[in-house]
Amino acid sequence: MKTLLTAVGLMIVATCLALSGFAAEAKKGKAGEELFNKHCSTCHREGGNIINAKKTLRGKDLKANHILKAEDIVKLMRNPGPGMASYDQKTIPDKDAMEIARYILEAFK
Length: 109
Fold this sequence. Notes:
Radius of gyration: 19 Å
CATH architecture of the domain at 32-107: Orthogonal Bundle
Helix content: 55-70%
CATH topology of the domain at 32-107: Cytochrome Bc1 Complex, Chain D, domain 2
Order of helices and strands: HHHH
Mean pLDDT: 84
CATH superfamily of the domain at 32-107: Cytochrome c-like domain
Strand content: under 5%
Structural class: mainly alpha
Number of helices: 4
Number of strands: 0
Shape: globular
């Protein structure tokens, strides 16, 4: 009986830990979405691009433009091509830029 109670207790603890991890990830994704909406959605609404239709944030276009990971997106935010505003560290800190980049990669697969 004692072993059964211990096993059940451990399962409850493990479940709570797992759920808290999912909640943290969901909150993280929400932060990326909020930052994206604040800084990027004017030109990149729903992952599109109002300046250059061939450079959307959708997976196939990102791959075609050799943008494969979050760091690639942050690099473009810091030093973009013609038509896109530059976002320096003061405007969007690295932590926030990475949140935006991860959101883009997840939301617009």
